[in-house]
Amino acid sequence: MTNLKKLIPSKSLREYLGQIGHEFSLCEEAALIYQNPLLRQDERLDALNEIAKTLRLPENASLQFPTYRNCRDGSPDSGEKITATELATQIESHIKSDMEIEIDLFRNTLEGIYEVDCSVKNESLCGQPYDTFSCPAFSSIEKAIDYVMTGENDKLLDFIVTLRKIDEGDKYVSGTFNGKGELLRVDSTFIGTQAFDSDNRLDNFYCELPYPFNDGDIVQDLSSGRIGVVNHLGGEKDGKLKNICKRYRDSSDIIVPVDCLDDDGNFVYEPFYTPCVDYAPRLDYSKGDGEFLYEASLLVQGKGSLEYFCNMVKKQNLR
Question: Which of 160, 193, 226 is the last residue of a domain?
Answer without folding.
Answer: 193
